[in-house]
Amino acid sequence: MTGQTIAEKVMSRQNLAGQDVAAGDLIDARVDGLLAITYQHIRSAYRRAGFPDGPPTVFDRDRVFLLNEHNQPPKSVALAQANLQSRQDAGRLELANYRSEMGVGHQMMVDYGYVRPGQFVVGNDSHTISYGGINAVATGIGSEEAAFVWAFGELYFTVPETIKINLTGRPRRYPFGKDIILHLAGRYGDAFGAGYSLEFSGQLAADMDVASRLTIADHGVEVGAKFGLFSADDKTAAYVRARSDKPFEPVSADPDASYAQVIDLDCDTLGFQVAKPFRFDNVVPVSEVAGTRIDQARLGSCANGHYEDIEIAARMLRGRKVAPGVKFYVSPASLPVYQQCARDGLIADLLEAGAQVENPGCAICQTPGVVLNEEVCISSTTRNYHGRIGGVECSEAQIYLASPATVTAAAIAGEITDPLEFLDV
Amino acid sequence: MSSLQQVFRGRVWKLGDSVDTNQLAPSGLAGQSIRQRMREHCLRGLRPDFNAGVKPGDLVVALGLPTFAVPGITAVISDGDEIEIDYPNRRVLAADGSTLAVLPGFPPSVEQVYEAGGLSAVLRQRLAERGFFAAEPA
Question: Partner of B89 at 20 to 30 A CA spacing, among A170, A196, A199, B5?
Answer without folding.
Answer: A196
